[in-house]
Specification:
By secondary structure, the protein is α+β, with helices and mostly antiparallel strands. The protein has one domain: Alpha-D-Glucose-1,6-Bisphosphate, Chain A, domain 4 (2-Layer Sandwich), CATH 3.30.530.20. The protein has helices at about 20-30, 30-35, 120-130, 130-150; strands spanning about 5-10, 10-20, 45-50, 60-65, 70-80, 85-90, 95-105, 110-115.
């Protein structure tokens, strides 16, 4: 399935419908052994250093770019509503919150990902500097491929 992404300061809004029930999509977002198999834009891999999956818990990981560049990431779980909603704070440049909702959509799941930036410079760094809109689409395409793969 395809997704949509739009940037309009102060947010990036991305949606995608998956041919998998919410419980499977949720597990792909919340279980480290699954996340490392799909997390990131096209060509990236991820190493998780810590994932304390609870409200207030830290998620520290490194995204490894296809050109060999490493991108350290630090997120904090702000809200966890089982099978419905995750809210994370990306605690580093570009600082922003990320809200992910999981909605039943027929036999599948509609996922909405909303990045909300605290200021224009953080937004510009993400959208212009990091290509976050295209990155978000690639990110969810990787998730779709992961969910479609057997095993």
């Amino acid at each position: 399935m395809t997704g949509t992404a739009a940037a309009n300061y102060p947010e990036i809004l991305t949606t995608r419908i998956f041919d998998a029930p919410p419980a499977l999509v949720w597990a792909a977002w919340t279980e480290p052994e699954k996340i490392v198999r799909w997390w990131g834009p096209e060509g990236f891999t991820t190493t998780i250093h810590e994932m304390d999956f609870r409200e207030g818990g830290k998620w520290e990981f490194t995204m490894h770019g296809p050109d060999g560049t490493d991108y350290a990431n630090h997120k904090i779980f702000v809200e966890i509503s089982h099978l419905q909603r995750l809210v994370l704070l990306h605690d580093g440049p570009p600082r922003h919150s990320m809200t992910i909702t999981f909605e039943p959509h027929g036999p599948g799941t509609k996922l909405t990902m909303r990045h909300l930036f605290e200021d224009r410079s953080a937004y510009d760094l993400a959208v212009i500097g990091h290509g976050a809109v295209e990155g978000a689409l690639q990110h969810l395409a990787n998730l779709d491929a992961f969910l479609a793969a057997p095993g």
